[in-house]
């Protein structure tokens, strides 16, 4: 199922949502350039979120406070990794969900609050991953956690809104309408296909550790609880 749009209409343009989509696309094009030059693997392993690197830096800082500088440097990857993607299917799926569900969430939160909500959700998802799997050596990248939070907020606020959806059947595409709540399940099913069109990022297995997708449940819960309490 491919979500296309909803039937909600707002006066305010979702400017932040447009910018987030644009930034993700531009950075992914940059990743393709790095892949062609053979530099992508080193870049992702440096700037992607690698839980073992951060947990090791924290352990060193507990012994030697001067190592806090390294911790702060590694923590930047929590934010930057949100804008990196490992495959064509991942970037396309994330952008599509952000386009369909992000517009309404930005309108109910406002531009500045929506941006903060998006970034904080992505960072908190990364922190949860570090806590659960501190020894993980695979770089985690993608806006999946941030977008899961957006989806959670949308479903709490607009659970019965019908989403215009395309059902692809080989070469036939059938337009249908599905409730927004359906996509809380479909989001996780879609994650299974994010390896399609993967970029060449060593080591193999990027974005496929045992618990990474479960962390998105944390993000979706954050989005749902935040909107429910605030609005």
Sequence-ordered SSE layout with sheet pairings:
Blueprint: E1 2-6, H1 15-36, H2 40-47, H3 51-63, H4 68-80, H5 88-109, H6 111-132, H7 144-157, E2 162-169, E3 172-179, H8 183-191, H9 215-230
Antiparallel strand pairs: 1-2, 2-3
Helix pairs in contact: 1-5, 3-4, 3-6, 5-6, 5-7, 6-7, 6-9, 7-9
GO biological process, one term: proteolysis
Domain Peptidase S54 rhomboid: 74-226
Transmembrane segments: 15-32, 75-102, 114-132, 138-156, 168-189, 209-227
Report a brief summary of the structure.
By secondary structure, this protein is mainly alpha-helical. It contains nine helices and three strands, in the order βαααααααββαα.
Query: What is the rounded Rg?
Result: 18 Å
Assign the CATH class: Mainly Alpha
CATH topology value? Rhomboid-like fold
The helix content, as a percent range, equals 55-70%
Poorly predicted runs are 204-210
Individual helix count: 9
Mean pLDDT: 81
CATH superfamily: Rhomboid-like
β content, as a range?
5-15%
* First and last CA, distance: 30 Å
How many domains make up the 3D coordinates?
1
Subcellular location: Membrane
Keywords: Hydrolase, Membrane, Protease, Transmembrane, Transmembrane helix
Membrane topology: Multi-pass membrane protein
Family: Belongs to the peptidase S54 family.
């Amino acid at each position: 199922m491919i979500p296309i749009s909803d039937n909600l209409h707002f006066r305010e343009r979702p400017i932040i949502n447009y910018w987030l989509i644009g930034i993700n696309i531009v950075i992914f094009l940059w990743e393709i350039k790095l892949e062609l030059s053979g530099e992508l693997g080193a870049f992702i392993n440096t700037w992607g979120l690698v839980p073992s690197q951060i947990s090791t830096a924290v352990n060193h800082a507990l012994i030697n406070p001067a190592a806090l500088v390294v911790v702060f440097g590694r923590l930047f990857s929590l934010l930057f990794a949100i804008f990196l993607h490992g495959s064509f299917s991942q970037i396309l799926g994330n952008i599509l969900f952000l386009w369909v569900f992000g517009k309404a969430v930005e309108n109910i939160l406002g531009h500045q609050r929506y941006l903060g909500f998006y970034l904080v959700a992505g960072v908190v998802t990364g922190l949860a991953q570090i806590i659960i799997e501190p020894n993980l050596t695979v770089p985690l990248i993608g806006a999946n956690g941030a977008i899961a939070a957006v989806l959670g907020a949308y479903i709490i606020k607009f659970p019965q809104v019908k989403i215009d959806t395309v059902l692809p059947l080989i070469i036939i595409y059938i337009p249908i309408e599905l409730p927004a709540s359906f996509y809380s399940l479909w989001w996780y099913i879609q994650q299974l296909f994010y390896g399609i069109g993967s970029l060449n990022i060593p080591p193999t297995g990027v974005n496929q550790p045992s618990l990474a997708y479960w962390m998105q449940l944390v993000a979706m819960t954050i989005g749902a609880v935040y909107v429910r309490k605030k609005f």
